[in-house]
Structures are given as structure tokens and as C-alpha cells.
Amino acid sequence: MDDIMGILATTNEKMKYLVKRDEDVQNLRVTVSQLQNELKIQAQQNIRNEVEIVGLSENLDENLNHTILVAATKLGVDLEDKGTCRPPKTVALSEDSCNMPRPVVVKFLRRS
């Protein structure tokens, strides 16, 4: 009888431990979900001032910043040469897209 009571007590302790562990796991899952949502929001906020321009032909001897300013002027957008946008980022060319112009990403520093 004492053996059965000992086994029952041990089983109860293990059950309590497992229940607490399940609660901890559930809390961690909620925390991970919240952190993932925060990362998504931050990623959206980081790119909200960026514009990706596709199909803009490039010449090796032409300044890409100047090309973007000319394109903006043609679209009726007034950009100043300094202080409005960072130097543009370009996506690396793949071997398959030799004839295709690469996308250009322009990040605006401030809103007017």
C-alpha cells in the first residue's frame, strides 16, 4: 500500500511539473507570436519611404542619382539633389537577365 501511495505521489508531482511546463510553452508561443508581429511592423515601417523603380535603363557612364532625378522630374515629382533621397540601391544582375534593366530602390530621407 505504501508503494502505491509513493508511486501516486510521484505521479502527481510529475503531472504538476508537466502542467507548469505546458503553461510555460504556451506563454513562450504567445511571446514568439508577438515578437513576429513586431518584426513585421518594423519591416513595413523601414520600407515605407522606399520606391522601387523597374525598367529604368542604365548607362555605365551616367550617374544613377542623376538618372533618378531626371525620371522624377519627368513624372512631375520635385526632388532636390541633396537631402531628399539616399544614393539608390540596385539589385545585382543575374546571368539570365543581361538585357533587362535591374530594379533600383530609392529611399527618401524626409517627407515634404
Report on this model:
This protein is mainly α and 112 residues long. The chain folds into 2 domains: 1-48; 50-107. The protein is 51% helix and 9% strand. The protein contains 2 helices and 3 strands. It has helices at residues 2-47, 64-74, and strands at 50-53, 89-90, 104-107. Strands 1-3-2 form a 3-stranded antiparallel β-sheet, with no helix packed on it.
Task: Describe this protein with a few key phrases.
single chain; 51% helix; mainly alpha
Q: How would you summarize the topology of this molecule?
A:
Layout: H1 2-47, E1 50-53, H2 64-74, E2 89-90, E3 104-107
Antiparallel strand pairs: 1-3, 2-3
What fraction, in percent, of the residue positions are helical?
Answer: 40-55%
Number of helices: 2
Query: How many distinct domains?
Result: 2
Q: Average pLDDT across residues?
A: 81
Going across the biggest sheet, name each strand in turn: 1-3-2
The percentage of residues in β strands lies in: 5-15%
Contiguous runs where pLDDT drops below 50 for at least 5 residues: none
Q: Tell me, what's the shape?
A: rod-shaped
Rg, please?
A: 29 Å
Query: What is the first-to-last residue Cα distance?
Result: 83 Å
Structural class: mainly alpha
Oligomer: single chain
Count the E strands: 3
Major sheet summary line: 3 strands, antiparallel
Strand/helix succession: HEHEE
Organism: Parnassius apollo
Protein name: (apollo) hypothetical protein
